[in-house]
Amino acid sequence: MRYPVHMEQSLPDPNVAFGDHRCPGPSYRDLVLRDETGVPAQMLESEYRYRGSEPIGYHRYTSKEFAELEFEKVFMRAWQWACREEHIPNEGDYHVYDVGQRSIILVRDPQGKIRAFNNFCLHRGTQLKPSGDQGNANRFTCPYHGWAWSTTGKIASLPCRWDFPHLSDDDLEMPEIQVDTWGGFVFVNFDPTAGPLRDYLGVLPEHFQGAWDLSKRYVELHIKKRLPCNWKAGMAAFLEAYHVYKTHPQGLRATGDANAQYDVFGEHISRFMHTSGTQSPHIANQQTEQEILDFLLGRKFSPGMETPKIPEGKTARDVYAQLSKVQLGEKYGADYSDFKVADTVDSIEYFVFPNGFFFPGARIPLTYRFLPNPDNPDECTFDLLFLRPHPADGNIPAPAKVCHLDFKDSYASAPGMDPGLGGVFDQDTDNLAAQTRGFKGSMRTAETLGNYQEIRTRHLHETIDKYMARP
Ligand code: FES
Ligand SMILES: [Fe+2]
Q: By alpha-carbon position, which residue is closest to atom 1 of ligand 1?
């Protein structure tokens, strides 16, 4: 396969309409169609349309007023994932989810149903369970005067009940929030009139089947890190592969960055997919398949390992995927046989509005969540999880405890984090404080976006606008 000259020299063709320009190298689809295993059908779908080239105002990232309105109009109305079902497997298990100033208790009731309750006392407002808490309880008791609620939200204890003749038991029922599940994730929606989660998720349930079924995975690692940026700026750093060339140059010999595919599926879902095991179109020198494989294995496998020779008719990706499936299968005791080449090795990232990211791939099985800081639009919290397939022997490990990292802490310092990958995440988030500085200090007041590679960021803002415009 021939690659073009160095991409920095590639200019847009003036005869092509806005939105139709693409990297002059092979497309993601071209690349995966060469895989020996074939490609999962959903990966051959594509859904892009030009959505304009208007700049995006920086006030959307920096303004406190904007952040407050956004919280009310978006976070109080959109479905968002709060925890995993395995965080609360048994009756009475609970998990506290905080978003903005809100806090809710997710609990498994005696019927096995997951319910979500306001985590604040109906007497004088005291928070019932601390933020970040989880455990098991048959009632939630306020630490101040001892009012308590059952796991079904009924008032269970009220000391000196005689002094509250003006309140009925109905008045004392704990407000409940809509809950539903998908892929082992527990989603909540603060809006009692919100439509069903399944409709909200669009193509997601259909795409995440078989090997991609996230309900058959467990949380291997969970990092929660503070980031010095608005939650949308943090997300935007992960919505495109355009930055890979400059921010993560170490992997370019085996990363199809500029030929990534970007899709927008309806109002809430977008996706990118980029290859591992093909060279970046930014690299002018054509490598052999064997050189690409050697590079990949040198980086990802043990240093002493002998590099296999690529058999006739196969590619670096084919061999890399095969080896990966064996390696992952041994490490996690799980069956990876349903994965094809592309979903074994590639970076496949689905975004679910407003703040969830889900990666079905075997080598890159991530989940992200970005939460706004209610007091400061220049800060957010980033949850980073690794989900691994359930082991075949049925001994499913308990979900990992959360590892908290502050602004300056390296991801690599989290126990269990691969140091190389930790370094990649550090590279991603190193840019964010500088960008936030620019949002405030630049003589320009808006950012400009690539029409194709940054379409998901544009789509994010578009959907926010739709939510903000609703009465
Ligand atoms: S504030 Fe909770 S019991 Fe008084
Ligand atoms: Fe990155």
A: 124
Q: Is the distance from the beta carbon of residue 147 to the nearest atom of ligand 1 less than 6 Å?
A: yes
pLDDT range class, residue 25, cuts 50, 70, 90: confident
Residues 178, 189: Cα–Cα separation, whole Å: 5
144 CA to middle of ligand 1, Å?
Answer: 5
Q: Is 124 in the pocket of ligand 1 (CB under 6 A)?
A: yes
Parallel, antiparallel or unpaired: strands 402-405 and 356-358: unpaired
What residues does CATH 2.102.10.10 cover in the chain? 81-199
| Residue 121 Cβ contacting ligand 1 at under 6 Å | yes
The rounded Å distance from CA 244 to ligand 2 centre is 6
Question: What whole-number distance in Å separates Cα of residue 408 and Cα of residue 228?
Answer: 9
Q: Residues 401-417: pLDDT tens digits? A: 999 999 999 999 999 99
Q: Are 319 and 43 in contact (CB under 8 A)?
A: no
Proximal ligand: closest to the CA of 251: 2
Which bound ligand lies closest to the C-alpha atom of 123?
1
Ligand 1 centroid to 438 CA: how many Å?
A: 45
**Ligand 1 atom closest to residue 126's alpha carbon, by position in its atom list:** 1
pLDDT in tens, 119-164: 999 999 999 999 999 999 999 999 999 999 999 999 999 999 999 9
Best CATH choice for the domain 19-61+216-469 from the list 3.40.50, 3.10.450, 3.30.1490, 3.90.380: 3.90.380
Q: Which ligand is nearest to the CA of 426?
A: 2
Our answer on whether the CB atom of 299 is closer than 6 Å to any ligand 1 atom is no
Atom of ligand 1 nearest to the CA of 128: 2
Ligand 2 is an ion; its neighbours by CB within 5 Å are 428
Q: Is any ligand 1 atom within 6 A of the Cβ of residue 126?
A: yes
Q: Which residues contact 400 (CB under 8 A, 6 or more apart)?
A: 219, 220, 221, 222, 385, 416
CATH number of the domain at 81-199, out of 3.40.50.2000, 2.60.40.790, 2.102.10.10, 3.30.450.20?
Answer: 2.102.10.10
Question: What's the DSSP call for residue 70?
Answer: H
The pLDDT of residue 3 is above 50: no
Stated as kind and residue range, the H or E segment containing 358 is strand 356-358
Structure confidence by residue, pLDDT tens digits, 274-315: 999 999 999 988 999 999 999 999 866 665 667 789 999 999
Taking Cα atoms as reference points, which of 217, 193, 208, 215 lies closest to residue 265?
Answer: 208
Where are the domain boundaries for CATH 3.90.380 in the chain? 19-61+216-469
Tell me the per-residue pLDDT of 196-216, one tens digit each, with 9 for 90 and over: 999 999 999 999 999 999 999
